[in-house]
Design a protein that fits this description.
By secondary structure, the chain is α+β, with helices and mostly antiparallel strands. The protein has a single domain (29-219), classed as archaeoglobus fulgidus dsm 4304 superfamily (archaeoglobus fulgidus dsm 4304 fold), CATH 3.30.2170. 27% of the residues lie in helices and 26% in strands. The chain has helices at residues 4-14, 78-90, 115-123, 184-193, 204-219, and strands at residues 30-39, 44-53, 59-68, 99-102, 127-131, 149-153, 160-165, 174-180. An eight-stranded mixed beta sheet has the order 3-2-1-4-5-8-7-6, sandwiched between helices.
Amino acid sequence: MISVAEARDIQIQLRERVVFERPLGFEPRLVAGADVAFDKARNMAFGAIVVMDLETMEDVESVTAAEPISFPYVPGYLSFRELPALTAAWRLLRKRPDCAVLDAHGYAHPRRLGLASHAGLELGVPTVGCAKSLLCGKHDQLPEQRGAHVPLTDPTSGEVIGLVLRTRDRVRPVYVSVGHLIDLPTAADLILRLTPEGRYRFPETTRRADRLAAEAKRAG
């Protein structure tokens, strides 16, 4: 097991490899959602990946994998706890997704390498971080209507590290950031496409992967 200090060094080294541009001709059709459920009693992590057709919003494939928990819960270092199970599940996919959305931060992270970025580098696929809560940064007040967004910035440098995006009218926003191999406007557009008609706050990819991970945990 690596230490937190070693994990920090890895994050600092890897963040230099994050690419903030989408691949040439990037037009995603198959989008993966990924999530992990933990069973502390059995010391197991259950990774789940659901692949959706972005045009039809139908599931194309879903896989799960279980791995022993090999890193403690430490805020800011979740990728070291979640990636082993997600990587194991990813290897089981028969179809390669065009991109992946993670219930996590990417560049909007204290060391600019959250789970979404770490996963993108590990899997070699465009990734988007779409988190439920703020980890770092500051932002202005957000209008109430769906689609409204404001930059998420570093309070010290003023650097834009993400986007605060409202996916439903008068509902709390989500926090979107670049994972890897994508730009911020494209990431935000993808999240809005995955929350059609503003029915839910979170992308369909996240909702379905979360449900699948919970089912895998119960099945053991």
